[in-house]
Write a structure and sequence with these properties.
The chain is an alpha+beta fold. The protein is built from seven helices and 15 strands. It has a domain of 231 residues: Jelly Rolls. The N and C termini lie far apart (160 Å). Its main location: endoplasmic reticulum.
């Protein structure tokens, strides 16, 4: 009974130890390796280079991606890291797009982890054959005509195997999966992990925008890869051509939890810390020298330092005072606006009452004069309209301009009259002005008219010899009246002629 209990106890301890080791081993420390990665934006520099990478062949680097091989016939290109890795286990997230116009593409894209860099125009997807390390191929062309493409597979080479192009390398592959990665709405993704001699490939088919929508493609154990290798990507086209673009290539080094690298300070950090410490020492030395040279300022220094800064309570009081001041300003502005509104309301009410009183007085006056008065509705006030006000203002402006013109004309006439009077005063007195031709013709016409009247009167008297003249008006009286009228008319004509002559002198 005791022996059986010991056996069960040891078995239980072994199982628990295995479980703990598996769980503990599953915990992995990841560290991003920027020297073995690239991503947009500003993927390529102004000179076209990619930091920590070098590319050749027909590869083209831009700010957003690296086009390993363009969609032209017989194109090859590759991009490789400049320095080898300094870690054993790694994980790579690669985001790429393979697009083309045709239903079938060629040739494909390859991911490399090799002991040495490959060429930029090799025979195996744009890189060298007989490599030492790992190659993962995204093959889009069906060379063996078995209708098993596009196909993803991994191949490990020790430098002695030559790639089998006729069979698409299927006889040499370690594992693979049939997945379509051409002409997808979203970029396709591949997560390649090599940890504890286990190779795992997760694939995202690009049909969704979810970055974590991965599915298992292959998993191979007991894969031994060379240490301190180079990462690379290559692509090639043949008679058919696709665009092979790589958008992201992010590398993380994998470390067991108990072997995680210690984050030690780098040389740059140490140099900066040393410079800062030297600066602090120099500043303290300058302060001491200043205090020795100016001992009178030593007692005032703490007070000055306190005056330079404010405490938390002072800051809170200042903020409270500022808030209350703003509230007071707002209340004062509201009070002012309220007073303006009350004043406007009082003025409006006074105007309304005055207009109502004026309307009532006018109605009483009309009733007293005997004229019918119209009833004014309650609450109705006949006010002048805006167009009437505008017309009134225009009329006033015109009247003012007219009065101004009349004033100018009167001033001009007055000045000219003064000039005429001055000129007449300079002339000799008692000078008889000769009668003009117009006056002579007028006098002649009046004389002819009187003679014609006399002739008519004589003819009228001769035609009625037997009749008696009426006793109301005699011929003598009539002639006297005619002479008086003639004299008045003649005097007025002479006066008018003198006035005309004066105005002619004026102009």
């Amino acid at each position: 009974m005791g022996t059986r209990s010991y056996v069960l106890f040891y078995v239980l301890v072994y199982v628990l130890n295995s479980v703990v080791n598996n769980i503990y081993g599953a915990l992995v420390h990841r560290k991003f390796e920027y020297k073995y990665s690239f991503k947009p934006p500003y993927l390529a520099q102004k000179d076209g280079s990619v930091p920590f990478w070098e590319y050749g062949g027909n590869a083209i680097a831009s700010a957003e991606n690296v086009r390993i091989a363009p969609s032209l016939r017989s194109q090859k290109g590759a991009i490789w890291t400049k320095s080898p890795t300094n870690f054993d286990w790694w994980e790579v997230d690669m985001v790429f797009r393979i697009t083309g116009r045709g239903r079938i593409g060629a040739d494909g894209l390859a991911f490399w982890y090799t002991q040495n860099k490959g060429s930029y125009e090799g025979d195996v997807f744009g890189s060298s054959d007989k490599w030492v390390g790992l190659g993962i191929f995204f093959d889009s062309f069906d060379n063996d005509n078995k209708h098993n493409n596009p196909y993803i597979y991994a191949m490990v080479n020790d430098g002695t195997k030559q790639f089998d192009h006729q069979n698409d390398g299927l006889t040499q592959s370690a594992a693979g999966c049939l997945r379509d990665f051409r002409n997808k709405p979203f970029p396709t993704r591949a997560r390649i992990e090599y940890y504890q001699n286990t190779l795992t490939l997760l694939f995202h088919n690009g049909m969704t925008s979810n970055d974590q929508d991965y599915e298992m493609c292959l998993r191979v154990d007991n894969i031994v890869l060379p240490k301190n290798g180079y990462f690379g990507i290559s692509a090639a086209t043949g008679g058919l051509a696709d665009d092979h673009d790589v958008l992201h290539f992010l590398t993380n080094s994998l470390w067991p939890v108990d072997q995680a690298p210690v984050q030690s300070a780098s040389e740059e950090q140490q140099r900066l810390a040393q410079e800062y410490q030297e600066y602090q020492n120099k500043l303290e030395q300058q302060k001491q020298d200043y205090r020795k040279e100016h001992p009178e300022h030593q007692g005032k220094q703490p007070e000055e330092l306190e005056d330079w800064f404010e405490s938390d309570s002072q800051r809170e009081l200042r903020q409270i005072f500022q808030g209350q001041s703003q509230i007071y300003d707002v209340l004062r502005e509201l009070n002012r606006k309220l007073d303006e509104m009350v004043g406007r309301q009082e003025r409006t009410l006074s105007l309304i009452s005055m207009q109502q009183q004026a309307a009532a007085v006018g109605g009483q006056a009309q009733q007293a004069g005997g004229q019918p008065s119209q009833a004014i509705p309650t609450g109705y006030i006949d006010t002048i309209r805006r167009d009437e006000v505008t017309t009134l203002f225009n009329n006033q402006n015109q009247l003012a301009n007219l009065i101004k013109d009349v004033k100018q004309l009167i001033a001009t006439v007055s000045s000219q009259a003064d000039k005429i009077i001055i000129n007449q005063s300079k002339q000799p007195t008692a000078q008889i002005q000769p009668m003009g031709y117009d006056m002579q013709s007028l006098v002649a016409e009046m004389r002819d008219g009187l003679n014609h009247v006399k002739q008519n009167v004589a003819q009228f008297a001769a035609q009625r010899p037997g009749g008696t003249c009426p006793s109301c008006v005699s011929v003598t009286t009539l002639l006297i009246i005619a002479v008086i009228q003639l004299a008045i008319y003649l005097g007025y004509s002479i006066y008018r002629d003198n006035k005309d002559s004066h105005y002619k002198k004026f102009y």
